Amino acid sequence: MFKAKKQSSWLKLIVASSLVLITASFASHAEPANKGLEIAKERKARDQGWGDSESVSLMVLKNAQGDESVREMRIKALEVQGDGDKGLTIFDEPRDVKGSAFLNFSHVNKPDDQWLYLPALKRVKRIASRNKSGPFMGSEFAYEDLASFEVAKYTYKYLRDETVNGELCWVIESTPTDRYSGYTKQVTWIDQSEYRVQKIDFYDRKKSLLKTLIFDQYKLYLDKYWRAHKMTMTNHQTGKSTDMIAKEINFKVGLTDNDFNQNSLRRAR
Amino acid sequence: MIKPAAFILLSISSLLPFSASQAVEYEFIGSLGAQGRYFTEQANDPQQTKSQLSVFAEPELYLQWNDGDDSFTAKPFLRVDSADDERTHFDIREAVWLHVQDDWELRVGINKVFWGVTETLHLVDIVNQTDGVESFDGEEKLGQPMVQFSLFKDWGYLDVFILPYFRERTFAGEEGRLRGQFKIDTDSAIYESSQEQNHIDFAANWRNTYDFLDLSLNVFKGTSREPEFVAKLDSTGEPTGELIPFYPQITQFGALVQYVNEAWLWKLETINRGGDTIDDYNAMVGGFEYTLVGIGDSTTDLGWVVEYAYDERDANEVATQNDISLAARIVMNDIDSTEILAGFSQDLEFSDSRALFIEANTRVGDSSKLIFDMWLFSGDDPQDISSQFEQEDFVQLSYEWYF
After folding, report:
1. What is the mean pLDDT of each run of 10 residues along chain B (403 residues)?
2. Does A51 touch chain B (CB under 8 A)?
3. Closest Cα partner for B346 from B327, B372, B374?
4. Least enclosed by CB within 10 Å: which of A191, B122, B178, B397?
């Protein structure tokens, strides 16, 4: 009896601990389902409150043979609470597009509003919102790659931990919610120390790896906001690449909504 | 009024390396270019050339002060043409002072303003005169003296214009092409208003964006930019065979709508024009632009532009009285920003009357562009004014260098 009783208590212990283990393993399986979303939310939360910024950027376009072509532009950005940000991009190089300007209102739940100003004709042209997957200025960046990061633009799945660029990262799979995105999914490496994006793999509509974006030369602004001064986008299918280099970034320069309308687009210099 | 000379002096002082004042910033940019045109058929008038070469310069000086709240832009333009005296011309495209406040702007000087959404015809656009010798498609405009007050409020953008001086439309000269069989004597232009070119015109434009909808309403009162033509008579009252432009006084109401839906842009422009010496009439142009992004797994975009134009005037007065246009715009999205627009216009009333056009451009090197244009015309019914161009088929190659 005693022996049997003892056996049963051992059994209970085993069953109980197995249950704990099973529950724990369920829990660890259940965790990644929203861990990706939690990381995305924290990434966004840590980048809130920057207000407005003005930057000078270079894009160096390289083809598979190594020929280079340079684009130069200034980008004004305004943070919008509860929706996507506003951006005004003024082109300086090449000279034949100097004075052209691009106004973008990024949205979370509807297509972005986009306008292009053509100085030779003094004409503002509205751009059909589905064009977001198209290349930006002949570069390897698509318009959507340059839009502000908004949590609701994707659904998330945590994959694993992995070290990239010397930083321990969470690896997260993001699926665009917009059916007009040029991508079926993105795999994003976010570092665990500061929630900075270190790398993104883009998968095309046929689900094959199209491009990789590497973030480099992060600098801290206003003691809170990290900005990569070099982003390199490599197209694996064409061998072409584009370096986006931020020469200068200034925050809180006093931009308001009035700097991001069709009038300011017309006189952007 | 701002004196440009004073600002040039200021800008020179800001060029000095140890200048204490950095208040005035300046920029000097512009373009130089050469162009060749070849006409495949000889015109009726043997004086008219079969080919022409030209060079142009369009420098631009920009000054700004008060942290950019004030600026001055000067943009002269000169073209010298080998064959056409009228196409050899100088114009001040811009010489304008701009003052910017939070929700209003003021421009005083010579400037260019564009109103419109459609591609094949710019019906509503009326502030600036067309530079008829510069390009066949009417996209080039002459500088217009103006005072423009702009207001930006929750209810939209409002622009009010006072236009104190009238610019006459330019036309190809005796040796020039694309003028049809008639010589136009621009030196003898006549006006309804006794004030002629000094008549003060007014215009106002309101526009606003409601999500996917752009709306605009405008009004113009003054000297019509579009002349009518009367036969020139010699001293004995006999027609000389030349035409004289007549500029009536008009009131024009315009409205335009644009609706964006995914890959579609729907566009409509309408006008009503009336005056004491012209019959009131309505005209419209509308259609869509549909863009396919990344055709066949490439980075090339293909856009379709389909527009229909209707005008209550007769075909012997206006070419776009009942016409449909279809064009394909190919945007390569390559390093050289190569674009090709090819299409045709078909007159629905005169079935032989049509035009075929190709415009293509690409960047050469870091800062030059090569531009190819071709227009082919057919239709010889004399009731249709576009029959004037039947023998004007041409190809044109331009090289433009930007500095």
Report:
1. 41 44 83 97 89 97 93 97 96 97 94 96 96 92 98 95 97 90 90 96 96 95 96 90 95 97 94 96 97 86 96 89 95 92 93 93 94 93 85 95 96
2. no
3. B327
4. B397
Q: Write down the pTM of the prediction.
A: 0.87
Does residue B69 belong to the interface with chain A, where contact is any CB pair within 8 Å?
no
Question: What secondary structure letter does DSSP report for A256?
Answer: -
Of A69, A93, A134, the CB nearest to B293: A134
Among candidate residues B289, B251, B285, the one with its CA nearest the CA of residue B269: B285
Give the per-residue pLDDT at B181: 80
Instruction: For chain B, say whether A207 makes contact (Cβ under 8 Å).
Output: no
β-strand pairing of B70-81 with B51-65: antiparallel
Tokens standing for residue A194: 């500061």
A96 and B263 in contact by Cβ < 8 A? no
ipTM over 0.85: yes
More confident residue, A146 or A169: A169
Query: Nearest by CB to B294, which of A96, A121, A133?
Result: A133
Structure tokens at B312: 């209550």
Cβ of B366 within 8 Å of Cβ of A121? The answer is no
Residue A23 has a pLDDT of 52
A258 CB near a chain B CB, below 8 Å? Answer: yes
d(CA B278, CA B185): 21
Give A7 or B82, the one with higher predicted confidence.
Answer: B82
Q: Which residues of A232-241 are buried (b: 16+ CB within 10 A; e: fewer)?
A: bbbbeeeebb
**CA atoms A115, A265, A109, A192: torsion sign:** positive
Please tell me the distance from the alpha carbon of residue B179 to that of residue B167, in angstroms, as a whole number: 19
Instruction: Give B93 to chain A, closest Cα distance, Å.
Output: 11
Residue from B114, B335, B339 to probe the interface with A (highest A Cβ count within 10 Å): B335
For residue B180, which phi and psi values (nearest 5 degrees)?
Answer: 70, -160
Q: What is the pLDDT of residue B327?
A: 97
Please tell me the predicted confidence (pLDDT) of residue B9: 46
Q: Name the band, by pLDDT with cuts 50, 70 and 90, for residue A67.
A: confident
A182 touches chain B (CB under 8 A): yes
Tokens 């034949």 correspond to A96
Partners of A242 in beta bridges: A61, A233
Q: Which of B239-243's residues contact partners 24+ apart within 8 Å by CB, and which partners?
A: B241/B182, B241/B183, B242/B182, B242/B183, B242/B184, B242/B185, B243/B182, B243/B183, B243/B184, B243/B185
Q: Judge whether residue A7 has pLDDT over 70.
A: no
Residue B360 carries which side chain, given as an amino acid letter? A
Report which secondary-structure segment, H or E, holds A21. helix A2-45
| Of A188, A195, A217, the residue nearest A45 (C-alpha) | A195
Taking CA A104 as the corner, what is the angle to CA A100 and CA A108, rounded to the nearest 5 degrees?
Answer: 165
Per-residue model confidence (pLDDT) at position A179: 82
* Among A123, A129, A263, beta carbon nearest to B157: A263
Give which of B313, B319, B325, B253 is closest to B286, Cα–Cα.
B325
Strands B89-100 and B70-81: what pairing? antiparallel
Q: How far apart are CA A240 and CA A211, in angstroms?
A: 10
Q: Supply the pLDDT for residue B297.
A: 79
Q: Which residue of A has its CA nearest to B103?
A: A258
